[in-house]
Structures are given as structure tokens and as C-alpha cells.
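TL;DR need C-alpha cells for one chain.
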Amino acid sequence: MSLSPSFSLKSELSLEVDEKSLQQWVVAFCIIRFDLEQGQLIEECYPPDCLDQNEELEISFNSFPDSVSQHHNRSSIHDCIFFFRIKRHKSPQTSSVASSEIIETDNKVYSEKPVGANMQKSKNNINYNSRFLYGFVFNRQRHDERLKRGGEQKSVVILSYSPYTSVFRPLLQIMGPLYFDIGSKALNYIAAYVSKWPTPVPGQQMELPIGNASLKVSLPPSHCLPSDNGLFEDSASSLAPLLPTHLSVPQGLFHDSDLFGAFRGLLLQLWRLWELLLVGEPILIIAPTPPQCCEAVSGLVSLVAPLHFSVDFRPYFTIHDPEFAQLNSLPEGSSFPPMIIGVTNLFFLKALRNMPHIISVGSPASNTSRSPFSSKSPVAGTPGQQQNISLRKLTPANFLNAVKLRRDGPLCLMTEHKEAVWTNYAAVTKPDTSILNRLIDAGMSPRVEESMSVVNNDILRRHFLELTTNFLAPFGPYFRPNTPSEASSPFANPPPLPTFSAEEFLGSLSARGPGKFLLKRMKSNWMDLYRRFLKGHNFLPWFRRKRAVAEQEQYKLWRQARIKTNIHQLIGKMSELETVDSFNAIERHLQGEMQKRIKLKLHSFSLFCAFHTLLCSMERETKTLKKYARN
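>> reply
TL;DR here they are.
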């Protein structure tokens, strides 16, 4: 969405800001200026005093490109939008990882405690304890030879705990130009509108009013958002890995990223990159500009949807980040922590030269674009003519160029930027040329190219969604909740979910195979990818989360069964021992709910009625036994 000339602020808008409601979406709005003598300075921040000194410093450094672009005419203005992700300095309060205690020993994962009263939570709970802070930046570079150093820079920044790029990018396209038109009043105006927005609903399409316009956005689903409080809002439909029928609803983070535009010159490498993401390998992405860099990182993260991506990622990383010193001081031969780092500074090629996987994306020529989003690299063709993307054939010249690139290594980017991948990773998955042949090249027409890019992104995203879903499908039985049978009492504790053993899982999978979809697209050593995934950094957090969601769903099923149970009929089928066991079980459920103060009135009332009925039944039986004893 671009700022329309017809956009205007409503005159009747009240400038009163509900800061509690504002926090559901935004932590703060900042105006940051690059001062020639003092460096980056936060001129304004709303709400004031919401950041500590370290956070202000880190946000300031991340809010500007590494260097002023030299690809503009004198007295010109260049705007760009990008975003960064930093660790918070204030330690969030966290609790257990899941609703139940999930223990891992000897490659086995099992549940120790049943899910119970900690099911209580707000349906649309906003996580204020996030470990990360996202900064969405509208940067303006104004070139004027009359000024010192020939120009000036300023950034409008939106800070949030949520990775809602689909919301904050279009919002910045309105807020950025508005600030440079009317000044600091823009912060109060935008804050007032945002504070009146409804509560975010993950996985839903929302309409958010802003002035006389409206942002129609789709939020990422809850199963791909972090949850530091141990409670998950994942729906039951996310338990079994099934391909969704409606792709208009996002299935993962950064569903709006331009995957095709970011990797247009590396499309054949996407399957190799998908595997690297699955197993959680460290990756360095280098691009000419911050928007291209962010688009590539967010595009990669979106590639493994619906898998919850647990590896740390930095869409725009600078040498001023506190973690750079740690990465730069790693001993020779030691492995890098699992991270996806996006950079534009070529210094990283030397500082992180031992990074095992390096990807170069984008084109320096794209800097001339006024578009705040990452621009697409030009492809030869007739303007306005639609044609299929032609895959680069293996010719002697291309082979020699590939050998030269591999021999020279990433340091060749110091002299000339090229799109390439440097890695020794041997992929198991074969590129699907039938998918690539469906992609459309719109030539040099920007308007047609933008619409074709949407089509191409849908084709690629649906394919990798299907690929990831089929890869995760063999784990489905471990997340299948048990439902109470007609012959059993719903007041007993539900049986635990199946214990997971890596060795048993791999043995069973090897015997039955991964399914036709994967067999057609993977080499004979497909088991190696599952082994790497089980040892990688994404598996255990994803498995724990899915396990917790399954137990929450199982708890709901058994609770519903208790509500619907006719206790009088059930007593008639019970033996004396079963009656006593049921009495004790109901007593435990009631005590648990009273201790946790769960607001489950219907369930509590049903339990109380069942408890009272069983108590009366046991009293009658006791009186009968005493009567027979006297006789």
C-alpha cells in the first residue's frame, strides 16, 4: 500500500491515547536523526521514557543504512523501509515451556504431569514478555550539496514486540511522509489511531482504520509466534500437519515477504536453503541495501512454514550489535551459534569468514528505486511481455563461472556484487523444475512485475508449505489427543501421549517410508535429513510446543466429556471400586480448579453435581452395608 494523495487525517479525531491499548500493537514511536558530530540521536520518543539507555543506543544504530547511497542525483530524496530485530536488555519473566512438564532423556520425550488448571488464559493474550524487540524503519536520505557532507538522514521508527510486517510496513508508508510533512504532531496522530485499533487476533484478517484510509492486513497464526509464558493459542487444526485449503490466511511468519523477488537469481538454490533452515544451520546473508537484506531474511524464515522457526534471526545486523563482538571473538574452528544474519557491510565477509553458509542476494542497481520495499532485479526481456522464467542451463561458460565463484569465495564480493551461495552442504531434496517452470517473468514493466511477483510468491510458498507439511507428517501420531471411550470414566486422568524415541521413530520411518510426495522429490539418503532435523535447533522447541497444544486439546476433550456425562447412568455401570476411584478423581479435579481459580463455571458445576451424586450414592451403600451387618 502506498501513501495516497487523498489520504488525510480526520479532524474530529481525539488526540487522547490509551497507552494500554497502544501497547497491544506498539511499544514506541521514535524519530532518530543522524548528527555529523554526535552520531545517531533520538530526537523524539512516544511514549516518553519507555526505553533504557542501552536500548536507545542499539535502536539508533540499527535505524540507518551502513552508508549513504551514492546512486542518486543531487538534491534528491531517497526513502526506504526495512526492519531489525534485537534482544531486549530487560529480562522477561518466563515460566514453563509448556502446559505440562516435558522431559527429554536419552532421545526420549514424554509427559510427566497432566495438563490441568493452567489452561486459563486470555483468548487474545498479548505477550509483553517477548525476548526480542522489532524495529520498523522509514529512512529518508536527502541529498543536497549545500549541506555538510552533501546530505542528511532521518528515520521514523515503530517499535513492537510483534513481527507484524504486514501491519507496520504499510503504516510506515503513511506515517513516514506524514512526519516529514507536519512534524512531530504525526506521532500523536498515529498513536491515537493505533490505540483505537481492536486487539490483535493471530491468524485472522483485520481491518485497521488510519485517517480516512484503512489497512486490510492478515496477521500470522499463533502457532508461529513466540510464547514465553508457556501457554499456546494454537488451534486444534494445527495439531496434525495437514495442508490448509485456504492459503489466503498466512501459515507462518512474514507471509507477505517477496520470496521470488529476493531470490530471483538463486531460485534453484531454494531447496538447499529450505533444508538448511529446517536443521537450523547458521547463515549469513549479504545484500547491497537494508530493504533487500530484510526481504531475503524474512523470505527464508517464511520458507519453512508451518514449522515454528526457533533459530534466532536478524533481518538487519550491524557491527554495533552487542552480539557482534561475541561472534567476532569465536575461537578458530569453533562452530557458529544457529542464527540467520542479514548484513550490508562487506566487513562481515572478513569478520565472519568462517560462517559455513553465505548467501549473496540483490542488485546494487535496485538502489535507484524509490520504492520502500525491496526492489526486484531486472531481467532481460521485452517490456510488458510475460514469459516463463528460463532456468539457467548448464553450459561450459556457466560451469566455469560457477567454479570461479566457488574458488574465489565470498571475498570476491569486495570487488563486485554477485548473487551466489557458498556452502558445502549436500542437499537431499531435488529442485522441482515443474514449479520453477510455472513462474512468470513480467519483463521490465514495474506495474505488471509487481502483480506477477504476487503470483510467483503464491506458487513458491504453496509448494514449500506442502513440502514442509509432508516432511512433518510422520510426527503426527505423537500429537494425537486421546478421547474418552464410552466404556471408560471421563473423570479419570486421560492416558499420556505416546512417548517419543528418536531411534524408534527413525526405525519405523525407515520401514514405512516418508510418503510418495517426498520420495519423488528426495534422493535415496532422505533419512539423513530427518536425522539432522532431530539433532537440529528447531526440532525440540517445535515438538514441545506441538505436544503442549495436543495436551491442551486433550484436556478440553475430556473436560467436555465430563460436562456431558450422565452421572446417574454411569454409576449404574460402575463397580464399588470404580465408584470410589471416580469419587476421588472428581475431588481432585474440584480441588485443582479451586486452587487455580479457573473460571470454568459450567465444568465446575458439573463436577460438583457429580461429586454430590457419588457422595449420596456411597452414603446409601454405606447405610445398606451397616444394616446388613446388624442383621
